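Quick one, T. Sequence first:
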Amino acid sequence: MKNYEYPGAIHIHSTYSDGTSTIEDIAKDAKRAGLRWIIITDHNTLEGLDNGREGYYEDLCVMVGLEISPEEGNHYLAFDIKENINHEQPAQNYIKEVNDQGGFGFIAHPDEMGGRDNPYPPLRWDDWDINGFQGIEIWNFMSDWVDTLTTKNKIKKFLYPVESLHGPTAKTITWWDKLNNQNNKIVPAIAGLDEHCFRYNYIGLNLKVFPYYKTFKTLLNYIQIDDFLSNDFETAKKQIYKAIKSGNNIMINNKLGNYSGTVFTATKRDLNQKYVKSTAGEILEIENDFIIDIETPQPSEIKLFHNGKEIKSEMTRHLKFKSNEPGSYRFEAFKNGKHWILSNPIKVIKAND
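Structure tokens:
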């Protein structure tokens, strides 16, 4: 059971690729937005790492990863690596290279919409039988936003970008659930911003679209760790990467409501009648019954899933569910019909399995 939670953001671009702010300025915006950690993932370059931009910026932990970005799709978020990786090769090859460096990776925006009514071509993942990756960016802010951008709605979507978010696609969630049903291993998910802070000149005005500070208040990941986040950068980096790789994070659209007070646990009594709890990304070994507890800060439509199938839905702040069935349990919470909170799974297994 993890005792400490820290908000952060993943998939951010700086001036080292096609972002519009330096890492130093991005860090200032992230800190002002209340984040405790961020991961920069510039396209096909580790210049930010090579130039010493990783580290603590006051109490904000800034890490530098890589978005391996072939021109037509199959983008891959690589974390905890030291050397750049050639993007002009088959996806299976660069996944292996990330693993060979001792890093880990998440498939980026796998299911962007085809047939868009706008000039932006989808960047999709084309091999859903690939292996060797550690997780999936299940919800990408920019993909969600641009998928339904049209000439008719563009002004509204630029003025109110968060209000137009829909949540992960059904295809991506189905794939994710399938992967988590295959064995007792947890395949984690993250929410990504894909933040660039685009700038446009409109009738002489220099406009920022999706400013870093405002975007840092939208799709966040709250990691859950065993101890306080260390003041030593290298130790903190290991804590954060371990949480992400293990699925010890809960994803939230923070604009729909604050995370504070969110609970997701599976609790059993062991043979000595002591309570044992697990949370997102953890495995609970059971002998008989256990209880799933879900709490959200405000009332919401909470949906509990077992092996990808919805087993309970309730408009409430606190959902309880008793079971003795092993499998993968996760939840989604909705406000006003929109995705608000998504958990990584708790894997429940029979003792000695």
